[in-house]
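User: I'm curious whether this sequence folds into something compact or stays loose and floppy. Could you predict its structure so I can see for myself?
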Amino acid sequence: MDYSEIIFRRDGAIAYLTLNRPDIRNAITSDVMIEEIVNVCDTVQADEAIRVLVVTGAGTCFSAGGNVKDMHERKGMFSGNPEQLRDNYRKGIQRIPLAFNRLDVPTIAAVNGPAIGAGCDLACMCDMRIAAESARFGETFVSVGLIPGDGGAFFLPRIVGFAKACELTFTSRIVDAAEALRIGLVNEVVPSEQLPARARQLAEEIARQPGKILRMAKRLLYLAQNKTLQDTLELSAAFQALCHYSPEHRQALEAFFARQKAGGK
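Assistant: Here's the prediction. I'll summarize afterward.
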């Protein structure tokens, strides 16, 4: 697929998705961008050689969320009567959280600047978030008379806890990178110029692990969030049985004993 609103590239086992509309602060409301993001997720999921996906934005903004000008003019996905608008969300931007939810490959959001509204939610769709010092986060839907329509009500409470998610949603307050780190919204904060290198470093650390096992571990973590301990243990036993018969497990054991024999660690 030829991409016009994102950049998709691969570097070995690491894939990169860059929102590429800096002229509109990487707003995520065009059908084209939505289709391209979903296509990347499906492509990465289907390629077993890819072990990590890094998501970032071109320019100085991660994503400003929805296009407020289109909202005001009721254009694009914001056009139509209430029933049509509901379908616009279902057939449009809501495809993105579903695509990320299908993705077994670990994902890192490299948040290079403001992540507002749907942009904040996109970052939350990723498994991990590294923020530049210039990053800002805002669940700002209520301030423009809306609710989180793209999955924020699902993702944000699971990251920062229910009470803090309520606070951020009800106040529409924008938090800086330091506060985002303090409340657990991001994993770490780095100087802006170091963000690409740090995201790559983390991606490489993950990519050194066996790909099929990584995918199973991620799926287990997500499934366990909605299960009892007993159900999680049953699922873990089934996944573990598959792991014990995987070539990755055998290779890891052989490498371990080879290091032991050589007197290494």
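Summary: The chain is about 50% helix and 15% strand. Residues 31-46 form the longest helix (16 residues).
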